[in-house]
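Data availability (excerpt). All sequences and predicted token strings are deposited with the supplementary files. A representative entry, UDP-N-acetylmuramyl-tripeptide synthetase, is shown inline so that the format can be inspected without opening the archive.
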Amino acid sequence: MHVALTRGTTHWEDLWNEGRIRGVAIDSREVRPGDLYVAIRGRRCDGHAFIREAVARGAVCVVGEEDASSIDIPPGVPYVQVPSSRRAASALSNRAYGFPSRRLTVVGVTGTNGKTTCVHWLTHMLRSVGLRVGMLSSVSNETGLRTVPAELTTLEAPKLHHALREMVDAGCTHAVIEVSSHGIVQYRTSDVDFDLAIFTNLTREHLDFHGSMANYAAAKARLFSGLSSDKLGAVLNRDDPYADVMAESCVAPIITYGLHAGDVRGRVVETHGWHTRLSVQLPGGEEFEGILSHPGVYNVYNLLAVVAAAHALGLPADAIHGVMSTLPSVPGRMHVIRPERGPTVVVDYAHTPDALYQLLNTARQWTRGRVWLVFGGRGERDKGKRPEMGFIAASLADRVLVTMDNPYSEEPARIADEILSGARQVYGAQCDVVLDRAQAIEHAVLEASDGDVVVITGRGHESFQVIGALRLERTDEDMAREALRRRPGAGAI
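Structure token line:
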């Protein structure tokens, strides 16, 4: 889709034709000489207020939604008014970086839970057969030219198309991208030419942004309605009730997966500790059996999604089967620390009611001892899920320590109280509040017995914690390992 430019079009087109536009930026602090600056109204500030700063840093053209007469534009700088700055940023970024997604086979992964794992596993599977694959996930971005920690689940449009361009320059043939509902609604992915899209599941999340589950589902569905009929298609979780919403406006071929129904069907043969033996049947009836070295039924679904996508991408069954047992651990996703002595510690990103429920159910199967849970609620996010998560925590964990996640500008004690309002509905719930996260992790690790499991959720791979204006550089894994070292008689970790 092309952007309709309503002012200054001729001069603006001249800049393109003369090669003077080198890139696109939506943050005035990140403008480089030769960039086109797109002013966007954000949640906290309005990009139109930073036009002079952008020009001072080298912006050669400005795009925005406001009328030119109402904003401060330096003389001689072309300004183009558009109906939607975000929509324009997507189309302009695509053009600025040479329409890179057209030169790649692009797979998008969306859903509430499992996106990151599916992106990492599919990337691993494609690379295992010799393909050059770029990856953009909420953990890291790998373009073939560089690997950097992720800023967002889905990059803003200028950085997204720039990353895709780097993949092309690095000789990649495929790209696997994590696609958030925010990214879809804010047009970050609107001009990415997706060849295949995966739907994992849909459970409560982001209702502070979307307002309702219907709106949330509709946002996700836009990824699938954007696939044309000549694309590889949509991979949908047949066991999830929202699969029908994703399929409703999708004209591309559809391949489904599931444990109860689907074109790609899984059957759990045996669960043993941290491993699952399962049988997988592909479309056409071909079947193989293998070991998934990652616990939990949700990881079985993640595997089936990846198998279905790999099949749609043309990987033969023997290649899929061969790599099944080698799928890597994903940072901050079911990351297990097994010390010689002391409790097993699990660090996970679970921050939705369903993810927490699935994680604690799985942890309960691992241990004959107690399940400890250290978790909190993220500030400035869907507050309605906090009591629900408190109820789940108190129902499934033996001991719960409610602590801080990333409270941002919210009062941490208030967030904890909202979680406890749900936990108190469980008779005999063992819940305490320890707001300092490091102290909460230390308390759980030191008090837990050798046969217990300590589950730490909410932050996963994140390397910093934001408390008001304070940013603490620390990971849950580091804090857990430090606490394990303090246990009397601690062995190797």
